[in-house]
Amino acid sequence: MLEVKNLSVSYGAIEAVKDISFTVNDGEIVSLIGANGAGKTTTLHTITGLVPAKSGSVMYNGVDLLKTHSNKIVTLGMAHIPEGRHVFTRMGVEENLEMGAFSLKDQSDIKKDLDMVYGLFPRLKERRNQKAGTLSGGEQQMLAMGRALMSHPKTILMDEPSMGLSPKLVKEIFSIIRKLHEQGITVLLVEQNAKMALSIADRAYVLETGRITMEGDAKELLNNEQVRKAYLGA
């Protein structure tokens, strides 16, 4: 279980996240939706130790993440798929995937994990010897997801997986997120594409200018008039 309590984050004099609290229970898909600049990415970066918190707490299965180095967080079973993919463009596809298994020692396990990732993403298997920089945006997103899976995560934090992708590829990516959820992986999903995020989530929180303004069952929020006007163009 991930529990964020009264979290505030500042960049100098600018308060990017303002006293927010939310939970992600084991086995859930929870979405954080909101406009660009609402504080969604900052929240993920703080959870994963990339940005320091001003105040508050972030607990993951009893461990205080605000006192845990980002490298250690991966070994706790949490993987972060950042906005913009951040693949190693000059390295091959398979080399990128193997980078995700840096905490694993057993080469036979790595081989099994590669087979698992290639089963989810056949396109990556076809391109396993290509440089990651030659892949399309959708393929790079698949590679980022596959690399995260190589660390055996129990929880995945995904930041804007639909960014820059065609509607067809967005559907494909979200179909894979559903498959991961069915396999028991917990997902915290940050998305500007509110319709897709709410359609896949169990629960959701709306973040506006650093504050949580709404929360609840994702399907209820999908039909909420205020949410529809602000984020769904209805």
From TrEMBL:
One of its GO terms (molecular function) is branched-chain amino acid transmembrane transporter activity. PROSITE patterns: ABC_TRANSPORTER_1, ABC_TRANSPORTER_2. Keywords: Amino-acid transport, ATP-binding, Hydrolase, Nucleotide-binding, Transport. Pfam families: ABC_tran. InterPro entries: AAA+_ATPase, ABC_branched_ATPase_LivF/BraG, ABC_transporter-like_ATP-bd, ABC_transporter-like_CS, BCAA_Transport_ATP-bd_LivF, P-loop_NTPase. The keyword Nucleotide-binding applies. The keyword ATP-binding applies. It comes from the Bacteria. It is an enzyme of class 3 (hydrolase). Its EC number is 3.6.3.25. Belongs to the ABC transporter superfamily. This is Branched-chain amino acids ABC transporter, ATP-binding protein.
